[in-house]
Amino acid sequence: MTSLLSxxxxxxxxxARARAAAYGRGxxxxxxxxxPVISVGNLSVGGSGKTPVVALLAAMLRDAxxxxxxxxxxxxxxxxxxxxxxxxxxxVHAGPEAAGDEPVMLARSLPGVVVAVGRRRDRVGxxxxxxxxxxVHVLDDGFQHLRLQRDLDLxxxxxxxxxxxxxxxxxxxxxxxxxxxxDLILLDADEAARSALxxxxxGRVLRLRRRVLGFFGLDGAERxxxxxxxxxxxxxxxxxxxxxxxxxxxxxxGTAVFADHHAYRPADVAGAESRAREAGADAIVTxxxxxxxxxxxxxxxxxxxxxxxxxxxxxxxxxxxxxxERRRGVR
Length: 331
Prior knowledge:
The protein has 331 residues and is of the alpha/beta class. The chain has helices spanning 2-24, 50-63, 96-99, 101-109, 121-132, 191-200, 238-246, 266-278, 288-291, 313-324, and strands at 37-42, 68-72, 84-88, 91-92, 114-117, 136-140, 152-158, 184-188, 205-217, 222-223, 229-233, 254-257, 283-287, 301-310.
């Protein structure tokens, strides 16, 4: 099937290159916000660690005393207006049905940070600046959102992306040649792959890692690892979640896997609960992204939290804070 789809993948890749060239040459208009923009994106349609990197950068800027806003498309959310404020210093104001699961997950994990969604991130950013003042904008899933100019462009890449093809033959939104636009490439792969990619993009490749923080209750409190968890997920690469849990528990009693961003129905939850009980599970373990979409369950639920880290965080911090100071007015 992949070979049959290869011509379509080539056409898709060519169209993506033409679109990027049109923006690069000024043939298509680009917007500029008052505050600096730091974009975090990827080449593939999911599973490259982008969202934890957004959280890492937003926390880095917030903790350095910069006012921050995360601008997201709000994928799979019902909101269709210019700007929906998901969270600000007063708390979280929107749920996943309207805003999408990833913005709500980010909002819950980043107290004090403005999180806002809308299909046109330039309009979202202007609305945020009008309401909260100028700030540093972290653009979630922004690599292909070329309408908005940025001061630093980060791309998250997985080992699988290195050998993949453009849609529909593979999972890439753009050919790997698009990495030339990136200021920094964060690669989730082994050191050999990082070195090989760094030879093509010297000084721009950092190794990205997932750090498991542990098991947490829905109330946010850390909990001991369960003995026989049942795993429930609807994410792009569930095998990583399964591996993370399996290495930290005695036995995984079963799994239920749904599509990425799945909207859980009562029947889905009832089925997972029934299977968990039959398998003798002492808890259902899910991801932070799934947790914001799940309705109340009648069995104990634990969330496996993960965070992003890079090998050279000093360099990453220096580049991020330098970009945050490129225009006056951000303090």
